[in-house]
Amino acid sequence: MEEIIRMEGITKVYPNGVVANNQVDFSITEGEIHALVGENGAGKSTLMKVLFGQEQSEEGKIFIRGREVKLTSSQNAIEHGIGMVHQHFMLVPSLTVAENLVLGKEPTKGGFLDFDKAVEITKELSEQYNLIVEPEAKVEDIPVGKKQKVEILKALCRGAKILILDEPTAVLTPQETSELFRELIELKNKGHTIIFISHKLNEVKEICDRVTIMRRGKNVGVFHIDEISTEEISNLMMGKEMSLDIQKKKAEPKEPVLSVDGLSYFNVVGRQVLKDVSFCVRAGEILGVAGVEGNGQKELVEIITGLQVDYRGTINILDRNIDKLSIKGIRGLGVGHIPEDRMTYGVAELASVEENLISNRYDDSNFQNKLLMDTDTIDSWTAKTIDEYIIKTDSSKRLVKMLSGGNIQKVVVARELSTDPKLLIAHQPTRGIDVGAANFIHRKLVDMRDTGAAILLVSADLNEIMDLSDSLIVMYEGEIVAYFEDMSKVTEEELGLYMLGLKRQSEDEIGRCFHA
Amino acid sequence: MHSESKFEVIRTLVAILIALLLAFIIILFVSQEPITAFLKLITGPFSSLRHFGNIIETAIPLIFTGLSISVMFQANQFNLAAEGAFFIGGVVATIAAIHFNLPPVIHPLVAIVLGAVAGGIVCLISALLKVKWNASELVSSLMLNYIFFLLGIYIINYFLRDPNAGAMVSYQFKDNAMLSRLIPRTRIHTGLFIAALCIVLMYLFLYRTKWGYALRMTGLNQSFAEYSGINTVKVIIYSQLLGGITAGIGGATEILGMYNRFQWQALPQYGFDGVIVAIIARNNPVFIPIAAFFLAYLRIGADIMSRYTDVQNEMVAVIQAVMIMLIAAQGFLAKYRHKMIVKGAKQHGKLS
Ligand SMILES: Nc1ncnc2c1ncn2[C@@H]1O[C@H](COP(=O)(O)OP(=O)(O)O)[C@@H](O)[C@H]1O
Ligand SMILES: [Mg+2]
Question: ipTM of this model?
């Protein structure tokens, strides 16, 4: 088969100075499924964004069928038959599937959108590629797995022959993943070329023909899939930074620190997002919350941390009802919060590392010197914290936006953990950051547990949940559908069934997570 | 200095240079004597002590309103009632200067404090409307400017107007009430010291106190501030209150330093000029005096140019507009900045 795409010497430096791609060569043969693997932060997404014309590289050339092209916008790339499904979907939630699909090239009748025609186009494509979607359903109402199909159809609708899928399985349950693989193989048989980004190596082994491995912004090897074992791939991916299995001893849970009793919540449009949720987190344990994103986890965290009010039910932290407490009041009880959305809540990116580190204690009396802030004390505390959490920055006065993702997250973690919280709410604590930083953060969470903190870990990353949790609840459509007291008895496949709502424990079994 | 702020300084200087260059080109087209006109614009303000004095006199009110706008902008509050607050500050100082009988030094200080309170109230209204009903402070403050302008004119006309004076002006201020002049043959007054004091206090407040910290974090990312436990409602209120107080001090100082009767017939526009000063100074009190001096210098230069040559002093509006546009445009010189960053990455050996 002929080489369809070649990228040569791609170098990409982000405005914050992070070198995401460093002289990367990359080549794709027509009709293959090509895996692009590497740990978080290795530069996979960046390389693909350059290929999709979404980011411009500082150096390097791109050839399509041997002809050099300049891809200055994604429009450009689409014209060359390249389509991309991003890690975070780019659909309009309030529009229907059909409308999303034809967005930008709508069929019109008398100047208005011809909705029937749009539905027809959707059905046709959907049948042609055997990707089943409901054209008239609103995107906000369909599950993540379906949204992904819509994204793929959207790319195909624009004539994509080369399809880039950025970590498509990260958000899927094991069952949805196998369905996706069947569909991808069908696409391949129809003559499409697929670039498949992942860091789950068994998946890569399962459906890919070749694999390109990236580490720290560089291409460290290209192999036919049957020439290389998963161990070898893994070694190349991680280099020296071997991801160690987290060593932790058995938890010794004590008294409940957080108790949530009969929590219900309706969002602004009146939809019930949480339905009668009850559970406890005890001192000295990590309680994991598994579930496909969007099943009420976000609201649960926002309510416990005080970002969201107007709920029904009772929440006690250390036997204090938090109903009347402000965010500051809740933090005052000894609560730390690693938020899901790092850039919105976690940091002020235009403030310095130091300013970001002190935001939850800037008014502490030992940081004050009469009317002014005591800069000496603050500086030395900051220096100590930067050291302790190994935040890589050349100065504590540097703006946070100049750090890499992993280091930004370390700033958040350092701030939230250095108060020695009695309860820590960790929401997607390692999403999208490099292995080194992720391992470090995992280690810290386990250490905190060992010193007696209660930790609520909410994550869509099954590996993270399985590795860290001492016990686990699964959320589906705003309810707790399963509780596992002992993690050693749970498999990923079984979790998948609960996450998809295909299985549900009895009320008695679920009720056991309310220890009070 | 960090590379980021260094870059911002460079960007500002380049913007100023381009604006001046553009001004020169326009003068070249419209004037019979372009070289003279341009020279008058650039060197005129320094040609005599009197002219130099004019720069300082003009810069003083700009410092106050620049500080006022800066503190509100740093909290991300787009309150333009600094204009109304400045005006009302002047009106209230006038009342005190005419009706009170106090010893020297004390008298202007009391008048200025009262002006500050009045100015604070003006800006506070927008803040309360925002907190209570989520009304945009930008819109409400523009409305308030007219309300307080008319209120001020009403007070002057009905209670303080001197019927024996030819024009529509107030009675004369008591001698004790006026700020004394500093340098003979200029009108530079002791308000300069008040301005300097305000700069220092504002800097300390913003960068060295916990309230200033909370204010800046709220301005940079309100969600982050709330999540951290900062009471952002309080910040929204006190940032604007403080902005109003500063503008009020400015109005009172201007009236007592430059005039012996109240004689503004329209809003003096210093509040809006404060926006220009704040933008050039990047909302940093340290740069406010430089920005105010620079703007005053341009204004005086344009005045001199229009008096001696055939170029109108509206020219300065063109320069201002180009300058502000270039400084506000995030993308301006972004390519250059990116090159610096790539170069930095190479130097640190991150690129091979
Ligand atoms: N828009 C951006 N601005 C600044 N840095 C970024 C941006 N996107 C990614 N990065 C940084 O570039 C590096 C590579 O990121 P990415 O390409 O997303 O890696 P991957 O997809 O392999 O996880 C990371 O250090 C990340 O923090
Ligand atoms: Mg990625």
Answer: 0.90
